[in-house]
Each structure stands twice: as C-alpha cells, then as structure tokens.
C-alpha cells in the first residue's frame, strides 16, 4: 500500500503543477493567428486587426466576451475548443458578422442564446459540451449547413419544435443518450430540403417509431456504427428507411451475427449503393440476404467470422463493383476452416475488385472464381488456402475473367510454380508472388501464356530461386521485374536470363548476395531505367585484379536513371564503370569501402542530381573526380567518411560546400575530419582555408631562393657530381649510337646466344637479382638464372657449361657472399674464365653490390679489375636516384661487343 502511494506521488505533483505556457506569442501566418496552448484567460488584443482565422483552443477561457472580438471584425473562423466556456453570447455575430465557422468542442456550454444575427454561420461544432435544449436555439442560424452536437448527453433528437435550419445538410448526433426516435423528433428538419447526412453512431438506440424518418425523406447517408442493433430492430429500422433516398448505410460494429433473407428487406425500395458491415461478428449469411440490393456497388464484410460462402450468398448483387472480404473468413481454434463453395461469386457479374486479403479457407476449389466476367483485380495476399504449388488448374477458373489485370498472391506460403501455372491469364498485367517460399529453377515454362504481363514481383522468396538463360523466355513484354531477396548467388550465365526482356525498365536484384555476374548481364536492356543491386557481393567483379579485368556490365544499359549499388563491399570503381550513363539522375553507393576514386570517373554523368556516398572510406574530395558531378547536383549525401582535412584533400570541397546551392543535409554535423590530428573529430566546415593561402607567397620566395642557392651549388659541386651524371648521359648517347649501328648482319651473329647473360650469384643475393636484374629482361633476350631456368634432370655441370655457351655475357654479382661460396669459386668461375680465354671473348660483367678489395677478388675469383674493360665493371649505387643511371650502365655493358680490341 505504502509503495503504491509512493509511486503515485510524482504523478500528483505533476498534475498539481500549473500548466506551462507553451509559447509567449501567438503564431501568425498569413491572416491566421494561432494562440492555442497559451494559458490564456482572455482573447489577446494585440493581434493584427485584419486576421480571418483565430485559434484560441486549449486555453483557460471561461467566457467569450463579444467586446473582446470587436477589434477583429473580419474574423471568419474561430476555434475556441478545449476551454471552459459556459455560454455562447447572443451578440457574438453582431461583432463578427463574417463568421462562418465556429468550433467550440470540449467546453461546458449549456445554454445557447439565440444565434439570430449569425447569417453567415454555416459550420457549428458544439460536440462534447453540456447542451440543454431550451427554446429554439438554432432558429436564427438560417444558413447553417453543418451542425455537430455529438456527445452532449442529449436524450432526444428534437432540436426544435418548429421547422428550422433550412440549409442544413449534415447533422451529427453521435454518442448522446438518445434511446428512441419518436415520430416527430426530426420534424424540425422538415423544411430542410438539402438535408443528406445523419450520424447516429454510438447511441443506445432501442426503438424507432413509425414515420420518424418521414420528415427527412431526402436522407442519403446514415451512419449507425457502434449501436447495438438486434435482428428484429434492424429489420424494423430498414422498414422505416424504405421511403428515404438512402444510398450509403454504415453499420460497422453493430453486433450482427447472422443475416437472413429478410434482414434488409425494407431497403429493397431504396437504391442503396454502399453498405458497410465491417467489424461485426457475422458468422452466417443466409442465401439471398443481399437480394434487395440490385444497385449496390460496394460491400464491405471486413473483419467478420463468416463460416461459409455459397452460391446463394451474393445472390442479387448484380451491380456490385467492389467486394471487401479482408479478414472476413478467419481461422479459429474451435471450429473447422471456413469454406468457399464453387460458383460462390458467380452472381457478381459486374465485380471489378475482389479483396480477399488475410482470409482463411480450406482450399481453392476448381470453379471458385467462375462467372467473374468483369474482374480487374484479385488480392489474396497473406490468405491461407493450403496451396503449396500452383498448377495449371489452380487458377483455371479465372479463364473467363478477360479483364483481370492484377493477381496478388503475396505471402500465401507457395513453394513452387508448375508449368503453365498462369496459362489461363492471358491478359494479366501484374503478378505478385512476393513473400512466398518458392524454391526452384525457373525453366521458363512457369510463365507460359502470360502474354500481356508487365510486372512480376518475386521479392522475398528466401533466396532459393535459381535463374537459367531460359527463365523469362516466354514473357518478352515484361517491364518491371522485382527479384530482391529471392535469388541464389550466381548470375554468371551466358546469355543472361534477362536477355529476352527487351522492354524491361525496372530490375530489382538487391539483397541476393550475388557474387558472380557476367559482362552481358544487362545486354539488350536498352530501356532499363531503374536498377537496384544494393546488398550484394559484387566487390570482386570491379577489381582491377579480377581475372579478365573488371566486369563492366552497364554496357547496354545506357538509359539508366537510377542506380543503387550500396553495401557491395566495393573498394574500387573501374575507370570506365560509369561511362556514357548520361541519363543517370540517382546514384547511390552507400556503405562500401571506397577510399580512392580515379579522376573523371563521374564525368559522363551529366544528368546526375542525387548522389549518395555515405559510410565509405573517402578521405579526399578533389575537383578532378568530383568537379563534374557536383556542378549540377540537387542533393548530396557524403557524410560519415574519414575526411582528410588538408589543403590538397579538402580545400576544394570546403570551398564548394561554402558556395553551393546544392542541398547537403547535415553538412555542419556529419562531415567530420579524421586527419590531420589538429582537425580530428571536427567539422569539415571548421577547416581553415587561410592556411593554404599562406603557402602561395611563401612558395614563390622559396622557389627564388632555392634557385639562387642551387645555381651556386651546381657551380660549386659540378665537378664532384660530373663523374656519374655525365657518364650517365654519355652512356645514353653511346647506347643510341649502338642501336643505330645495329645492322642485320650483326644481329645474325648474335643469334646463337639464347640468353642475354648468365648470372652467377650467391644464394644470399637471389632477392636482389630478382628485384633489380629481372626487370631488365625483354622479349628478345632473357637472363639465364640457374634457379629458374635450369632444366630439371640435366646434370648441373653439363648445364652450366652449355648454358654459359649460349649466353652472350656472364654476369658476376660480386659480394662477400659470392667470394665465400665454394661452388661458385671453384667451378663456375673456373669455367667462365676458361671460356673467356678459349673463345677469346670479352664477355665478363662484374656488378659490385658492395666494396670488395682487389686482392680478395684475385684470391677468390682469380680475377683482377684491370683484366676487364672499364665499362664491364658496374657499381650498385647506394643512392636511390642513381638507380636509373646504374641500369643504363649495365645495359651498355651487356650490349658491348665481345671482341677483344
Ligand atoms: C441583429 O438582430 C437584431 C434582432 O434580434 C436586429 O434588430 C439587428 O438589426 C440585427 N443586427 C444585424 C447587424 O443584423
Ligand atoms: C445566406 O447566405 C447568403 C450568402 O451566402 C446571403 O445572401 C443570405 O442573406 C444568407 N441568408 C440568410 C437568411 O441570412
Ligand atoms: C427466405 O428464405 C426462406 C427459407 O429460409 C424461404 O422460404 C423464403 O421464400 C425466402 N424469401 C425470399 C424472399 O427469398
Ligand atoms: C432508384 O433508381 C431508379 C433508376 O435509377 C429511379 O427511377 C428511382 O427513382 C430511384 N429510387 C430512389 C428511391 O431513389
Ligand atoms: C499485394 O498485397 C499486399 C498485401 O496483401 C500489399 O501489401 C501489396 O501492396 C500488394 N501489391 C500490389 C502490387 O498490389
Ligand atoms: C495442365 O497440364 C497437363 C500436363 O501437365 C495437361 O495435360 C493439361 O492439359 C493442362 N491443363 C490445362 C488447362 O492447360
Ligand atoms: C516493347 O515496347 C514497344 C513500345 O511500347 C512495343 O511496341 C513493343 O511491342 C514491345 N515489345 C515487346 C516484346 O513487348
Ligand atoms: C533510351 O531509350 C529510348 C526510348 O526510351 C531509346 O529510343 C534509346 O535507344 C535508348 N537509348 C539507348 C542508348 O539505348
């Protein structure tokens, strides 16, 4: 108990606090003043005099003093709902003569003084008050057309004793305590020739006296929702309504359990067109119950518990165009599944729309839909009928429905489509099969006979559908194909399954984990406009390293206007991926791993208006990539990237952001720098462009001084550097002349050499050889490298001898390791020297990777530097920038003649 009080305490405190004023001033807009929720006790006197609309609802007004409105003589609409008004003053309309709408819902008005001067008042809302009907409160409001006095605890509908309200069209009396309608209760409306609509919802109505509707014979719409209408009472009521012009009867939630062939008998003389029976507990509808409604066009039986539909249920509804059976037949624990008999819909010869969403029935009988000659749309979404497979007989009863355009079979638990499943539906335009469990290879014959089909929806089918090249071969007329979350992951077949769909404009392949596609995926789809491929696994197909190169699959789809490629793991975009997509308006690449984008990849997207690149790894936004696409954009979404806020990465984008008219939602908060550390976690807009400007004069100064210094240094160090530099250029010149002297005769002589050079190196230097020498190989000459080129099986000695013979030069890669390698020393060197001497060739080239003393050379290799031509001794430079010069020297050494001069 104590706990309970404690818990209640905060609530009491909250209730006892004064209601806060929500705003200090009335909100003005055009000629409208909104002074609601302001804790007002009087009407504010400081508003513009010419306002037309004044809202003072949700305040604390207790009185509407006419003088307080004299200022606002042009007032046309006044809303004083949710106050504590007790009285409606007689003089109101004298001070605001133009008032036509007065809304006073939720007040405490008891007495209505004569509203005689309200000549313009047409709409009066007094619902939720405490009206007492004394005198003739409405007699002066001659132009009133709409009157709401719902929920006023009125016990009678008699608003006056003599005819009045001549212009009234609509009267709302719902939620009062009216239990019976007496014969002359509605007499006050007897001269209201335009009266049409009467709402009597939620009344404890028990009795209607004979002739009570006579004064309002022009009645067209009657709403009785929420009244308890027992079977005798409802037939009685219908009798009373028989002489009216009733068109529209709403009896929702009136506890109807059963309809018989006499329930609506009284309405037989009317021309009822709309009947709403939803939210009842209808379990049985006897044959012929609706026979009285030959003019009925719309019937709703939504949310009932009907057990059976038979041939006779809809008898006589020969004008019905729309039948709403949503949840009209349902599964229950206690009773068996409802049944729909063959030919149940046969009387509905004019029916165009049949909605059977979320119904449950035992099976789809063979002739269920027979006779629906005008049917245009059938929706069976989420209904449970027990079918697992659609065969060519399932919908055969729709054969006669020549106008059927849409068949919606969403969420019906279908597992497979048989051959010719829809072959009786030659004129069908839209077929919806989403949210099923279809698991099969689509061979093509499933869609046989759908000769006019425009749209097929197969999305959300558990990713179990496998496509073949023939899948859509029978439906070339298709325009829209939805396959999101439906397919297995491989689409790499030739020709593409979509090849037959020449008129396709919309293709959804999203959420399929597709990893394999071919170049020809979209071939022939010249009209494709919308392509959705988000949430797949296509990163590999756009990699440069993909065997065969990146897959550029848009080659025929040049009319694309919308392209969605989000969440595919893309980390690169091939340079020509978006070539000639000049119609593209929407491009979305959210949630990929893009960090570097090539220059100009977007340059062909001349029509681009919307670009989404959020949640990638973009660091820079450079003019070279984004200049063209951002120039004409309407909206850009590029937030949540790790921007690098340095001059070269972001300056251009910063300037663009600050000057563009393009909408960039959240530009201040969501475009955040990641690097450098001084801008970490700060907005890109905080970037200081001045830091880049400072660089310009500095750079000029820098260039001038360095030039001066350099000149001096060049003069000073020329001698020191000339050694290698001049040699380098000299070598190039020599090389060129050698090339010129490259006569065919000489080439012939060289032909016997298969290799450019035989490389002798220590095992430790293998890596260096691979990195630095092998790149020099060309088509004509290769190096001989033991590890690589020795034929397996040939004895090592023999191969060394043979291959040295076939090599034009012999290169020693001289390092300490080589000098210490016994195998090199003893045999290879020996043989090489032997050959040099024997053939009288000058074919040795020494590359020194490190400094080696001459005596070590003599000792180990029996060689002296002086034995060789100078150009055949090459030194591996320590400085990186000298490597090109080294290469040049080496090439020259390799090209030098073998003859001893
Ligand atoms: C208001 O009604 C009174 C009679 O009740 C009439 O004398 C007066 O002229 C009317 N005023 C206007 C402005 O119509
Ligand atoms: C009803 O309104 C019209 C103009 O809309 C006006 O001419 C007429 O006088 C009004 N009728 C009465 C009885 O005030
Ligand atoms: C109403 O049904 C009963 C049988 O239930 C039948 O005898 C009677 O003829 C039917 N009346 C009409 C008007 O169809
Ligand atoms: C019903 O419609 C017919 C023809 O459309 C018409 O002659 C008849 O007067 C209408 N009946 C009622 C009560 O409106
Ligand atoms: C098919 O029906 C489902 C539910 O029954 C609905 O949500 C969907 O919009 C309908 N589809 C079409 C194309 O009419
Ligand atoms: C349905 O298919 C079977 C063979 O699978 C065929 O014999 C039969 O004629 C087909 N029926 C229709 C209505 O196409
Ligand atoms: C494609 O569309 C064009 C123009 O609407 C039409 O003439 C043509 O017949 C269509 N092709 C197919 C195979 O439906
Ligand atoms: C784009 O579509 C139009 C018709 O909609 C067509 O004439 C044109 O050939 C298509 N363009 C390309 C490049 O296929």
From TrEMBL:
Keywords: Glycoprotein, Immunity, Inflammatory response, Innate immunity, Leucine-rich repeat, Membrane, Receptor, Repeat, Signal, Transmembrane, Transmembrane helix. It is found in: Membrane. The keyword Transmembrane applies. Residues 753-894 form the TIR domain. PANTHER family: TOLL-LIKE RECEPTOR, TOLL-LIKE RECEPTOR 3. Belongs to the Toll-like receptor family. This is TIR domain-containing protein. It comes from Silurus meridionalis (Southern catfish).
